[in-house]
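Case 341 in the screening queue. Each case pairs one protein sequence with one candidate compound; here the compound is fe (ii) ion. For every case the pipeline is the same: read the inputs, emit a complex structure as tokens, and attach any notable structural observations.

Predict complex for case 341.
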Amino acid sequence: MLVTKQKVLRKFWYAVMPIAMLEDGPKPFTLLGENIVVWLKSPGKPAALQDRCCHRTAKLSKGFVENGNIVCGYHGWTFDCAGACVRVPQNADGSVPAGAMVQSYYCEERYGYVWVALEKPLRDIPFFPEETTPGYRRIFQFYERWETSALRMMENSFDNSHFSYVHRGTFGLYDQPKPEKYEINETDYGFEAETLVPIKNVPASYRVTGTTDDTTMRHMFNRWYLPFSRRFGCQYPGSGRHHIIYNCATPIDDGSIMLAQWLYRNDTEEDCAEAELIAWDAPILVEDREILEATDPDACIDVRRKQEFHMASDRPGLIMRRMLLQLLEEHGETEVFRSKD
Ligand code: FES
Ligand SMILES: [Fe+2]
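Case 341 output:
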């Protein structure tokens, strides 16, 4: 599926960047192939426009913010958060030509991130309950570009067969390649998937898992939020520690994503410091990134049309593809993909 060609994907919210990145001025982002600029119209309130001035096409992200509006860095034309040009400094009284405006987008802050929808969203920004549940702390982890597709990243998130191979250097048990069964319940937002995962517990992870046993269990309550967000809901039964990761595979274009990842823990900084939690998950992320960047990003969602072999543990990914195909069909679209094999 080539995400930039599937119009319905423009009607979902995506986490595009940490809001803290806007404190020193506007920033560019490419979402589904569209160049946008985001800035702070007031503290904690972001806005998004097309990154292209309607005067002589300069990128507005090269400009600056003044009184909540964005000022083009070329000749100073000024735009409000709805995209209307409100001032042309060279004209008498700053008057503007009729119809001078730039495309605006839906833009909100949530969970420390700026979220953008290119068109009227079909549903709300996903609800992540740990954000407001007492006893949890939020930890910013990773924000980085990967050369893969959003679907590849999502299916990998529910693929328990790769742990013994991709993660054999961190938590994977090489001699236990057969994954436990997943219990999957489809929901209105995607699905929930519960399973148990035995893991290697090296000394570097003792304070993460809360145990010093050589191996331990993860009890997983994962969720997939259509189209490209997921919850990694890990509980360590022995210690009662929760390690709840949210990932957004925000589609930049057909072959790259911005991975946004943050974490909720039900313990304290004394139990396990933020730096330790980032240091533990960082090499795991590199392992996933390296294998995903070695795949073809053009994952075909209609599995009748492209040859890929599957095994029983690929079921979550296959449900994902079916639900995405159904979404396209409900909106009168057919899948666009590049490969013909
Ligand atoms: S190009 Fe933006 S003000 Fe001229
Ligand atoms: Fe992985």
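Case 341 observations:
- DSSP finds five helices and 17 strands in the chain.
- The helical segments are 150-157, 163-166, 206-209, 274-292, 315-330.
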